Amino acid sequence: NCSIEKVTIPAGVKFIGKDAFYGCTALVNVYFSNQHGWTNANGEAVVVSNAAANANTLKTGISWTRKDAE
Prior knowledge:
Blueprint: E1 6-9, E2 15-16, E3 29-32, E4 38-40, H1 51-58, E5 64-66
Parallel strand pairs: 1-3
Antiparallel strand pairs: 2-5, 4-5
């Protein structure tokens, strides 16, 4: 269990591992500096504009990857 409630993912981040937020039950908001080009481990596009939904999804143990947007 960690006490982090919110986090901002910097624009330079291109990968978030599946266990990056494991045990962070207090996490309620995850914001992204660069919201474009994110996909989940299944290759599905991820819409990252909803900070609460981002937190819920990232706590479930799914990795995300960002492709450079042209």
